[in-house]
Amino acid sequence: MKYFLPVIYGLLLVNVVVAQELDPYNYSIQKTFRGRNGAVVSAHPLASKVGVMILKKGGNAIDAAIATKLALAVVYPAAGNIGGGGFMVAHLNDGRNITLDFREKAPGRAHRDMYLDSAGNADLDKSQYGHLAAGVPGSVAGLFTAHTYARLPFRDLIAPAIELAEKGYSITEEEAEGLNSERENFLKYNTTTTVFTKNNPWKAGDTLVQKDLANTLRRISKRGMKGFYAGKTAKLLVAEMKRGGGIISRKDLRDYKAVSRNPSAFKYKGYDVVTMPLPSSGGVLLPMMLKMTEQFPIAEYGFHSLKAVQLMTEIERLAYADRAFYLGDEDYYKVPVAKLTSDAYIKERLRLYKPDTAGNSKAIREGSVEKESEETTHLSIVDNTGNAVSITTTLNGGYGACTVVGGAGFLLNNEMDDFSVKPGVPNMFGAIGGEANAIVPGKRMLSSMTPTIVLKNGKPHIVAGTPGGTTITTSVYQTLVNMIDFNMSTFDAVNKPKFHMQWLPDILFLEKDFPLEVSAALEKMGYEIKRRGQIGRTEVIKILDDGTIEAVGDRRGDDAAEGF
Ligand code: DON
Fold first, then answer.
1. Beta-strand pair 529-532/508-511
2. Measured by CB atoms within 10 angstroms of the end CB, which terminus of the chain is less buried, N or C?
């Protein structure tokens, strides 16, 4: 009894706080926040509010990040997750920059050609949906590893998520649309009945209750990592695999570990940029693209000027061409990172750049980056003691594999599609790859997720990141150039239309509202242009020199900035 009392008391305390500060049935979306004590920007207002509650309780930015991510796993099932993975970049107030890799891994029984049919053709249905699409989940291991830098007990951080799952919350219009659009997939790729389908279409304001998920979160609260990677949850996951023809085993789960890596860190215009290294391609592409940009007086060209957009497009093309050939999990494949990001290579690469004319990616095979859903999610958090956290986490596609672990209530990722399932065959984001990103048991698939922190005089200045598949790195790149070179407000840097070029397909993608006259001029220069719905959902926090915190949630979704 002596042992249990504090636990029960702790839970009660958090529940009272939840009830007081969080009304899951009635909430609004705040896009910007300005203040001094701390801020959280995430894809869902309830999750941002949970993060701020934890900061107010005395948690630091890491505590808030853990609680926000767990809340997202409940209130943002499309991407917030415990069945997926991600990356964390953090700056700690003792001056350390840390990164955590909790990316999913290929299961032990995965093999290079597992998605090829007998004729040798790639079966993308298998790499993108259902049991076989799932990599070994990393999120829970990531959260427990991050917790070593936190202040509050883990059970306090998970309590709000448990309550939101148990009692339910009102879904937004965007969530209703997402659930309705995946209805057929939920029915097709599950072996049990899930809470994500019902007889009538979902509408805004409906309550989503997730009892099985609440129980899984309770097991994690009680048993830590073992509450997910062993015991009942692991048993349910492996049983689900057996029923649905998947290959994740008890051993895969037991062996999963999050990894601390050396950050990708470099200078840009006097700032220190800290971002995620491989298996994030961002850790190579962001320095490449910013270093190339630095060779030109881009501020003089001006934001959305023909000259600036053409230059940045060609820079993106050059960097992404290297991505396809060279980048993969460095634990399994030797990647020439130092060479690719060296000043000499940058200069040599830029010899291929021609102003005033459209570059040309030799068509090897053209993929489609038409998908407009943004089913990864980013959160940016700062506290008032100098800590900053940038986490991007993903299930890959919307609602991942669309497969729920029966009895455990969480969605599995479809991250295996981020491997190169066959050389030259585009993945769901149109990205191609080869040997460097081929499937090997235990290997991590290449990612675009680029959680980033920019330091000014050694202190957090910009915390940024976004979902968007291969557009992630270009969105982060453009957001930083907008803020640093074009001196743009945080709000505009996030919300102004973005563009994207990824070498193949040789198409310049422009957001719907991108200025017409610039796109006409680009077309005249020879670019093939396609308009697309939205690029990214960028969450940015800027800390001004006087300590004021400015937080902005992207207009492109339910994203919300909260603080105090
Ligand atoms: O890790 C990656 O690069 C992808 N799995 C991210 C997926 C994503 O951003 C989905 N949103 N469109």
1. parallel
2. N
* Contact 80 CB / ligand 1 (< 6 Å): no
pLDDT at 367 over 90: no
Which tokens sit at 477? 């790149």
**Whose Cα sits closest to atom 2 in ligand 1?**
447
The phi, psi pair for 72, rounded to 5°, reads: -60, -35
Find tokens 């600036």 and name the residue: 308
Tens digit of pLDDT for each residue in 371-416? 445 679 999 999 999 999 999 999 999 999 999 999 999 999 999 9
Q: Which residue would you say has higher pLDDT here, 7 or 468?
A: 468
Give the pLDDT of residue 373: 58
Residue 313 CB–ligand 1 contact under 6 Å: no
In this structure, the residue with its CA closest to atom 1 of ligand 1 is 447
Residue 468 Cβ inside 6 Å of ligand 1? The answer reads yes
Give the closest residue to 414 by CA, choosing from 531, 248, 560. Answer: 248
Provide the percentage of residues in the chain whose pLDDT is more than 70: 94
- For a mutational test of ligand 1's pocket, the pick from 413, 472, 476, 509, i.e. the residue with the most ligand atoms closer than 8 A to its C-beta, is 472
Ligand 1 touching residue 447 (CB < 6 A): yes
How much distance in Å is there from the Cα of 213 to the middle of ligand 1?
23
Q: For residue 322, count CB atoms less than 10 angstroms from its CB and return exposed for 0-12, middle for 13-18, buried for 19 or more.
A: buried
Q: Which residue has the higher pLDDT, 18 or 303?
A: 303
Task: Give the residue carrying structure tokens 């990708």.
Answer: 264
Q: In angstroms, how far is CA 239 from the centroid of its own chain?
A: 28
Neighbouring residues of 489: CB distance < 8 A, sequence distance ≥ 6: none
* Residues labelled catalytic: 376
Q: Is 191 helix (H, G, I), strand (E, B) or coil?
A: coil
**Average of pLDDT values for 163-178?**
98
Amino acid at 251: K
Confidence of residue 3 (pLDDT cuts 50, 70, 90): very low
Bin 205: left if φ > 0, else alpha if -120 < ψ < 50, else beta: left
Ligand 1 centroid distance, CA of 80 (Å): 12
Between the CA of 545 and the centroid of ligand 1 the distance, in Å, is: 33
Average pLDDT over the chain, rounded to an integer: 94
Phi, psi of 400 (to 5 degrees): 55, -130
Indicate the pLDDT class of residue 17, thresholds 50, 70 and 90: very low
Q: What is the pLDDT of residues 49-86, one digit of tens each?
A: 999 999 999 999 999 999 999 999 999 999 999 999 99
Q: Give me the DSSP letters along 178-201.
A: HHHHTHHHHHHS-SS--TT--SSP
As a whole number of angstroms, the distance between CA 358 and CA 503 comes to 12
CA angle 127, 180, 215 (to 5 degrees): 75
Peptide bond into 279 cis (omega under 30): yes
Buried b (16+ CB within 10 A) or exposed e, 243-268: ebebbbbeebbeebebbebebbbbeb
Segment 205-226 shows an average pLDDT of 98
pLDDT of residue 240: 98
431 touches ligand 1 (CB under 6 Å)? no
